[in-house]
Amino acid sequence: MPPNDRYLTLDDLRSRIDRGEIDTVVLAFTDMQGRLQGKRLHARYFLDVALESGTEGCNYLLAVDIDMNTVGGYAISSWERGYGDMEFVPDYDTIRLLPHLPASALVQCDLVWLDHAPVPQSPRTILRTQLDRVAERGMVALAGTELEFIAFDTPYEQAHDLRWRDLTPVNQYNVDYSILGTTRVEPLLRDLRNHMYAAGLDVEGAKGECNFGQHEVGFLYADAMVTADNHSVYKTMAKEIAAQHGQSLTFMAKYDQREGNSCHIHLSLRGEDGTVVFWDEDGRSALYDQFIAGVLSTMHDFTLLYAPNVNSYKRFAAGSFAPTAIAWGLDNRTCAVRLVGHGPSARMENRLPGGDVNPYLALAAMLAGGLHGIEQELDLEDELVGNAYASDKEHVPHTLRAARDAFSGSALARAAFGDDVVEHYTNMADVELAAFESAVTDWELARGFERM
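Request: output the structure for the sequence above.
Response:
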């Protein structure tokens, strides 16, 4: 069933196409980098052909770098394998209007091979596998992502020509919780809130953040898969809406020397009948403590799934509200894991991911870690009281290479996700590292052009 009545059923979509209200249907999946990729179909072709026969796309879509270059090292896709196709399988519970675009609807897809076997390296498949493990225990996962961005009065095309430097932020000072500061940006923020709501996302509101031009739009807790789907839709729509305003925005984890863009992820488990399993008459349940212990015990090994890019690691700095210590605390924002709420609202907040995170992979990592804690009945260490930045707790990996090595060599990761997935995303890190290590940066030019 669709999550709310603003989604469309297949019958709704068919009727709107027949009445001429929709002429374009976007079929899209989320790729390794967290982006929506796919095709725009003429609505009549969708009804007459694609609805029954489906559509396909090249398997390099799960084996390219950020610039869409075909790269080596992926077992599923190569010149030797001939770059064959994958099938897009629409999930008809995800049909939604794209209200910022004329007469358009979106359907999100799973990926399968041509023999209809799931593509295990697909982010949506990776999350579904962990959700199936949760379901085997008679539970469901609920999640919310808090995604920050920095917005500029500079259009994307001009930002490109400026090499993404010296852009004009939409605010020139810290507007954290400032009503005046958000009023200045209200034309963009209002369109974001209202278009997202019309597209089926349950919007809470918008608030200013600390970096110049930084803002956050919040959404209600939902089923973990719905949250991941919405997250990907939101990032794409937000950029498209900003472009319509002659503006741009970035979800980079660390755009400049000031505060980075975070993506705090809230997560809890419930019984399939809605019963609370993270809380009992004595407070936190044993299952909740085991779940947190498992997330903490796997955080070092799974950091690659929380911080997938070279830039991700620039966020992790003392006193930055981005965590460095693998520790938990009660409502303690210096820790990687912050516990908030009580009773039905009890949940964990993972503060490690940045705005560049792939939500499917991060949620899958949290669930895999938590289930490891439950299965092994891990004891939860004492909470950290005080400043985690100054503690002697283990730190998260401080570079992409360190995270890559931890993930690749992790028996826990291979047990949770399978060798195929681990090798695939290890290679993704290798590709990014090779690109970064061969690049000549502004820092090197400034230091070396004349003075060396």
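Residues 224-244 form the longest helix (21 residues).
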